[in-house]
Write a structure and sequence with these properties.
This protein is an alpha/beta fold. 38% of the residues lie in helices and 23% in strands. It contains 9 helices and 15 strands. It has a 7-stranded mixed β-sheet, with helices on one face. Strand 9 and strand 10 form a beta hairpin. Helix 4 runs parallel beside helix 5, helix 6 crosses helix 7 and helix 7 packs across helix 9.
């Protein structure tokens, strides 16, 4: 089987990581084309990979006959046009979240893909591929804990870029817990409320940090999420499910936990997302590459979150931003999936 020839669009922090991943860790694929709005950066990365070219126009990179599949690590506002180009050329695409930056365009992408009658789009919700989340999902599906009732989550970052605003805490951070909720419970989120506690003294002026998200699912399950993106400490992601016959938690301790002579107990907390979810990204990419290789026979070129999952997350986050402004619970507005054949 010949290697999948991949174009990586956007080679900033995340895209450069993906180029390195595809080049050094993933079997069955190679990076054939790179693109970035900073042309020099793309050319520098291409020069370090045998047989790789830098193409200035992202749409030309997608259309290139030497490209079999595409990875989008470009800014969210560019995704709609690039995704539609991938669909037009029939090229499988792994798109980092968000699918698009608003609900209307996300729904349009879902509809356009459905018209093709085959799945080409996978959204980069990598937590589904993390070993801990996979075990938690398997435990819930086994029925051992009975029906899951409540989900408690914490999502903490040591710092965020200067341009990060209060709405981005919902769209860029909470979005992962939105997908985790839908993944673990297999149902849609119907309402969301964002509560703003007193802001941390360490947060930049004007940034509502921390935030508390309270969500309700279609069957009435409760989900709460603490979002704190300027802790100044480390990267912490915790998830606890409370069910009728017990509970389960992941992400509580990372690495060795030890007791000190002064009677305190401590361990190591991952400093960033790479350390916490590096394995998840590797698994996500390998399974995507394998799925694309199988796709010509199965008609399904993905092995993970779909365009619909990206649309659903966008709908919840849009309602979340509305609640951030009002402080009130907001109903999530989504179309009925059954009305879109093939979605």
């Amino acid at each position: 089987m010949s290697d999948l020839r991949v174009a990586v669009l956007g080679v900033g922090v995340m895209g450069a990581d993906h180029v390195a991943r595809l080049t050094t860790k993933i079997s069955g694929a190679r990076v054939a084309v790179v693109n970035d709005f900073v042309t020099e950066k793309a050319e520098q990365i291409a020069a370090g990979i045998d047989g790789c070219r830098a193409i200035t126009d992202p749409l030309d990179a997608i259309a290139d006959p030497d490209v079999d599949a595409v990875v989008l690590a470009t800014p969210g506002p560019t995704h709609e046009k690039q995704l539609l180009a991938c669909l037009e050329h029939g090229k499988p695409v792994l798109c980092e979240k968000p699918l698009t930056t608003d609900v209307a365009t996300s729904l349009e992408v879902v509809k356009r893909e459905a018209e093709l009658g085959r799945r080409l789009i996978q959204v980069g919700f990598m937590r589904r591929f993390d070993h801990e989340y996979a075990r938690l999902k398997a435990l819930l599906d086994s029925g051992e804990l009975g029906r899951a009732l409540v989900l408690h989550c914490a999502h903490r970052n040591p710092a965020v870029p200067p341009y990060f605003d209060s709405a981005m805490i919902v769209r860029d951070s909470l979005v992962h817990e939105v997908d985790v909720t839908r993944f673990l419970f297999d149902e849609e989120i119907t309402s969301i409320q964002i509560v703003k506690p007193a802001a941390s003294p360490g947060a930049p002026e004007g940034l509502a940090d921390p935030q508390i998200a309270i969500m309700r699912t279609a069957s009435g399950r409760h989900v709460d999420v603490e979002l704190f993106v300027t802790t100044g400490v480390a990267y912490e992601v915790r998830t606890e499910v409370v069910a009728e016959k017990g509970s389960a938690m992941i992400g509580l301790d990372v690495g060795l936990v030890r007791t000190r002579g002064d009677g305190t107990r401590g361990g190591q907390i991952t400093p960033g997302f790479r350390e916490r979810f590096g394995q998840a990204y590797d698994t996500e990419f390998q399974r995507w590459v394998d799925a694309v290789h199988r796709g010509s026979a199965t008609g399904d070129f993905t092995d993970g979150p779909s365009a619909w999952d990206g649309y659903a997350a966008a709908a919840v986050c849009e309602a979340g931003v509305e609640s951030l402004d009002s402080g009130l619970p907001v109903e999530v507005a989504m179309v009925d999936r059954a009305t879109i054949a093939g979605a």
